[in-house]
Amino acid sequence: MTVEVGLRERKKAATRAALAAAANRLAVELGVEHVTVEAIAAAADVSPRTFHNYFSSREEAIVASIIDWAERLTDELEKRPADEPMWDSLQHVFLDSVDESADGHARLIRQLEMIKANPAVIASQLSALDTMRRRFAETIAARTGTDASRDLYPHLIAGAAGHAVKTAMDLWALGQHDRLLRDLVAEAFALVRAGLPEPGRS
Amino acid sequence: MTVEVGLRERKKAATRAALAAAANRLAVELGVEHVTVEAIAAAADVSPRTFHNYFSSREEAIVASIIDWAERLTDELEKRPADEPMWDSLQHVFLDSVDESADGHARLIRQLEMIKANPAVIASQLSALDTMRRRFAETIAARTGTDASRDLYPHLIAGAAGHAVKTAMDLWALGQHDRLLRDLVAEAFALVRAGLPEPGRS
DNA sequence: CGAAAATTTGCAGAGTCAGCAAAACTGCCG
DNA sequence: CGGCAGTTTTGCTGACTCTGCAAATTTTCG
């Protein structure tokens, strides 16, 4: 994949990363509504017009890190042993991606709070997660011999896994700091793998 | 809930409905990018400024029918017998909402195609579906004695059910016209309820 | 009817975003 | 090197979105 290593490609990647980082940082620091494209561009040392060559909206830049995360996770998923049960692979990949340091937790909470505060950013986040889900479905289809354009399975399991992680994070950020995020994610996976049986029924 | 039946309330609801209908119709007919707020407002016989009193973005108006759908479904869900297994209630409510007429199918396909064609509308759709998911989670929590602000269960099952329906629809619209949409939805539910076992494994 | 409350509207202003063409830059071959 | 070809950056412009504010209009209710 990443075979193009010319100066040109590296510069493009760097510009994109700088814009995404600036957008995210400013959104967290100042609040989304106080961040303009002009300010993001200035922070990344490019013209406002260039910003729009990389991102089609301010919100897209703010949540660009989700796409990067998704790319890393897809790579990880592809590296899992081919004979490992699909659910185990997914759980492994997602659990490994959770930063358990105190600093990581603090950052994550700030992220989620910033996103939650603005409907347009929420929509962009969901969009990014949906893109991630589609990538996952492709990878899963390839590994399980299913067809992402015809079979429900790869989409359903990718969606279920992604949603389990999102739900665990959202609930955790909402006040379950007494529990480890890791454990909450694991519990969500367990529930979904069990077919979500109704609690308190035989 | 809907106890306010004064002229004022009825007019507001009518204006909102007219704007949503106009926005959706124009988006399907002309394509999303060729629809301006001005045109929507004109079609609903109000000023452009009034449009923004009802919807905070063009896309929100275009997908407003999803919110209406969600409201109807939540009502249906609340009406299900309290002792019915949760999964059965959900499956029932969603399956009943599928319009199986040829005309309904054609409309649904045009809808999905219109949405798919524009990233901003996709994001708004996901946002609306997320709102629906949250409503469902509240209702489910109330019925299963769980707490939507602490427990994973209501969110996970609401998300799984909603995503099952969305996946079935998307795949169906993509070319599975040989199969009944109803059957695809039922199959998706069955897979999720079974915990998404890997196909072709013992 | 007439006052109080809510809704609609016009206007102004800040901001987003895309198309276009010129300027600046990078890669590469002679 | 030098310079051409292909890419990226940039400024400019125009259409459009969206919000705040205050005036005008409409509805409600005593």
UniProtKB/TrEMBL annotation, chains A, B:
Keywords: DNA-binding, Transcription, Transcription regulation. PROSITE patterns: HTH_TETR_2. Residues 13-73 form the HTH tetR-type domain. SUPFAM superfamilies: Homeodomain-like. Pfam families: TetR_C_14, TetR_N. The keyword Isomerase does not apply. The keyword DNA-binding applies. GO terms for molecular function: DNA-binding transcription factor activity; transcription cis-regulatory region binding. InterPro entries: Homeodomain-like_sf, HTH-type_TetR-like_transc_reg, HTH_TetR, MftR_C. Residues 36-55 bind DNA. PANTHER family: HTH-TYPE TRANSCRIPTIONAL REGULATOR RUTR (PTHR30055), MYCOFACTOCIN BIOSYNTHESIS TRANSCRIPTIONAL REGULATOR MFTR-RELATED (PTHR30055:SF238). This is TetR family transcriptional regulator. The lineage of its organism: Bacteria, Bacillati, Actinomycetota, Actinomycetes, Jiangellales.
